[in-house]
Amino acid sequence: MEEILARARKVAEQAEVYMSTAEQTRVQFETNRLKHMQTKQSTHVTLRIIKDGKIGYASSEGAADPLALVRMAVETAQFGQEAKFDFPSAGSYPEVATFDRRVEAVPIEEMARLGEEMIDAVTGHTPGILCESEIAKAVVTTSLINSRGGQASHKTTVFSMGLDGNLIRGTDMLFVWEGESDCHPIMQSKTISSAVIKQLELAKTIALVPSRPLPVIFTPSGVASTLLPPLMSAFNGKMVLEGASPVAKRVGERIFDASFSLWDDATLSYRPSSRPCDDEGVTSQRTALVEQGRVAHFLYDLQTAGLANTRSTGNGIRRNGLPAPSAAALVIATGKLSYDNMVKDMKEGVIVEHLLGAGQGNVLGGDFSGNVLLGYKVENGKVVGRIKNAIISGNVYQLLKQVNGIGSESRWVGSMVNCPHLYCPSVSIAAKG
Amino acid sequence: MSQIDDVGHELTGLLKYFDADYIEAHLEERQVSRIVYRGKKLESAGRETAIGGNVRALVNGGWGFVSFNSFDKMLDKIEMAVGQARFTGKEESKLAEVPPRVDRVRRRVARNAIKIPLAEKKVTLDEYNEVIWSTPKIQTSIIGYGDSHKRTIYVNSAGSYLDQERLDVTLRLAAIASANGDVQQVSLSLGSTGDFGAIEGLHSKVKEAAENAVRMLSAPQVKGGEYTVVLDPVLAGVFTHEAFGHLSESDFVYENDRMRELMVLGKQFGGPELNIVDGAAVSGLRGSFKYDDEGVPATKTYLIREGKLVGRLHSRETAAKMGEAPTGNARSIDYSYPPIVRMTNTYIEPRNVSFGDMIADIEEGVYARNWYGGMTSMEQFTFSAGEAYMIRNGKIVEQVRPVMLSGNVFTTLMNIDAIGNDLDMNQGGGCGKGGQSPLPVSNGSPHIRIRHCLVGGK
Fold first, then answer.
1. C-alpha to C-alpha distance for B258 and B365, rounded to whole angstroms
2. Residues of A whose CB is below 8 A from B67
3. Contacts of B225 in chain A (CB under 8 A)
4. Tell me: the pLDDT tens digits for A95-136?
5. What percentage of chain B exceeds 70 in pLDDT?
6. Are A251 and A235 in contact (CB under 8 A)?
7. How near does any CA of chain B get to the CA of A274, in Å?
8. What is the distance between the alpha carbons of residues A407 and A421, in angstroms, rounded to a whole number?
9. Which chain B residues touch A172 with a CB distance below 8 Å?
10. Mutation test of the interface with chain A: which of B2, B143, B378, B454, choosing the one with the most A Cβ atoms within 10 A?
């Protein structure tokens, strides 16, 4: 890394070298039995330069030839955007715990045993169900150095488990699934298998649903897949800068229900997406996006913040190429209404667990529309069965203006979202009659 | 001669000495250019390179897979893959026999994107951005361009050695209009196997897209429910991919008795006019290649002929387990993933109904064009249109906001009651499956009419 930086400094005013190495092992089950095992070893290096005031970059998977990297970065800098920031100089970062050395030591036999245990529990409950499962462990090390003396490095361990079940009866297909991910090793499989079994229980019979607006309870999975994508786009500093965010001009305004609060936090202990600083070396922090219904702050990386005349919030994350504003871990505040009481409150309504295709409509405008892949009908306070062939549609800004209640318990969905149930008074439903 | 050639030659003749039922290795080197515009200016230009490989082993029906960026200690890596396969395998290995091939495949392209300097590409993209921005009421634009050159070497324990070059170009343009807190977006997605010419001369299409985004701000939402829907070739292609293509991927069927019953050859899925094809042997398209990533030659496979199920898409393992011939559909997006069953170029063959005749007897329906996305759960599928219009009494009338369409796979194909004469291919697609996204594919169709389609709306 030092060699790349040294060469880059000869031709550019500022330079930054970012490197990520990972080793991951996965054990995979297919059709209820052990089928694959995979190991991935990867190395990725990115050089970013500011030359003649403009940003260029080049990256390499695998052995990086320093001369070639510098040459490519110089070539692209001719066309790049004018830089509105300086790389951060040396600083101190908070302690953010993301490494548990027990993860690397988990033997593959134990990973296989966890998978077998989950599959036995689910097939024991529902013979005929076909399960896929994956148990994975990984260690990821990221480091960066820049020409202003900045440097940062941290290591993260990730242990993840998931189970997908598919039950076919006639032409009816039921898909159930659940997953978990943590920086600590996950030593038990009951959380996942009991969640899947609960889905199977509720889905035992098929219930009809009418084509008209109904109250809807979004489970944490439902919230994460349906309501969050439009919000993630809206609070992205780039979208705000470009005027493509419906909340850009509404800072301080209460446009959501007063009980709705949302924030991003990259400092939570032992969460896979936590880190002491972002991919540009800017210190991680907790950033409030919505506070008691009021639009509060947006997420920024260095360049976007520079263009917007504000400070980076430490949300510069790299996917393909340059860093861009991205949430680390989104958390929705819990409320006062238990899930059971939400269900009891429904005279007629729907619970949405998984939606197919929700992120494909006008996400920028807040619209969502998806086929309810797993959802249940509620009548007179009780779940009466699973619904099928139904599309729910709506707009997240209209929906969250006034909610019936927010769940009193929350949980992690995937590695990046922590949320409770959300009970909304009215969502449009179109069903095949 | 590059490092992958050295390693490739080192592995030749070596793999058969390991104690496994089958071993293959993939070595890859890749160069990518990306250009992104956001707003009035070019936001970023970047170059990426990659070099890496994998070893994949089969022992007693279980698979081991090791991928890496360094070619040190190759023998250890092969042993690791074999050891992993041995750990997982507890049954008989079944893999379709394919005669070993030694071949070298190179692309010839009229206007090779890789050879065009960045400055020249920028001229074209600047022009498109200018077209979008010259449209009144446009709020912002996003343009994403990418081209890649990939050379892969495939070696296996049966003696195959395939050196293949692949080129790819992708362009996605979005025009975003905004008024009164509402935001609408229209996107165009295009691609090719290396020819920059495929994305030149698009100025009028880009203009149309930008004007559409603005019009959508004042378009009403359709009332949700069941409608007769006419799909344009691009959207019908996405429909075919989501509604039927994924169901044809045998890895979902081969060990699932219920699915095998539902997908029995000879079963009637649609009317006698319906023919659906998938194949990388259909040349010149985004999903075309000579050999798949298991060394199997590409084919053109009829999935549906005269409405009946006559074929499906295979990897060597699914083919063996179903007693059918391999079709050359095992693909991996890059060296860090194992190959799985994927589509290539998928389309409905044209028939002879004209577009005018197709809409003539529709009292109330929806005409949906262009695509925004699509997904399937095998039984249910969804796809979203970029543009939609109401059809009333045989005429295309008012524009409505983009719609999401959904249906049941097993009933919707039966509900196609008119197939047009104007086949066109959508080459801008990237398919996602098993974490491997976006894989270059193409899909297409003529205009088609579907009865009883569920449309999401107000």
1. 35
2. 38-42
3. 211, 430
4. 999 999 999 999 999 999 999 999 999 999 999 999 999 999
5. 99
6. no
7. 22
8. 5
9. 379
10. B454
Q: Quick check: B450 pLDDT over 90?
A: yes
Nearest-Cα residue of chain A relative to residue B64:
A37
Query: Measured in whole angstroms, how far is the alpha carbon of residue B113 from the centre of its chain?
Result: 20
Partner-chain contact A242 B47, CB within 8 Å: no
Task: Please classify residue B238 by burial: count the beta carbons closer than 10 Å to its beta carbon, then call 0-12 exposed, 13-18 middle and 19+ buried.
Answer: buried
Cβ–Cβ of A168/B262 closer than 8 Å?
Answer: yes
Side chain identity, residue A29: F
Q: Which long-range contacts (CB under 8 A, 24 or more apart) does B318-323 make?
A: B318/B250, B318/B251, B318/B253, B318/B254, B319/B96, B319/B250, B320/B94, B320/B95, B320/B96, B321/B94, B321/B254, B321/B255, B322/B250, B322/B253, B322/B254, B322/B260
Q: How far apart are the CA of A336 and the nearest CA of chain B, in angstroms?
A: 31
Closest-CA distance of chain A to residue B352, Å: 30
| B283 pLDDT higher than 90 | no
Instruction: Read off the pLDDT band of A358 (50, 70, 90).
Output: confident
Angle, helix B74-88 to helix B3-11, in steps of 10 degrees: 60
Q: Both tokens of residue B117?
A: 């300097």
Q: Is the CB of B406 less than 8 angstroms away from the CB of A391?
A: yes
Residue B73 CA to residue B247 CA, distance in Å, equals 40
In A, minimum Cα distance to B409 occurs at A171
* Span A373-392, pLDDT tens digits: 999 999 999 999 999 889 89
Residue B157 CA to residue A102 CA, distance in Å, equals: 37
Q: Is B120 helix (H, G, I), strand (E, B) or coil?
A: helix
**Backbone φ, ψ for residue A242 (5° rounding):** -85, 0
pLDDT in tens, B16-70: 999 999 999 999 999 999 999 998 989 999 999 999 999 999 999 999 999 999 9
Q: Is residue A8 predicted with pLDDT exceeding 80?
A: yes
Query: Which tokens belong to B17?
Result: 């000495």
Q: Which residues from A are below 8 Å from B70, CB to CB? A: 41, 43, 62-63
ipTM: 0.93
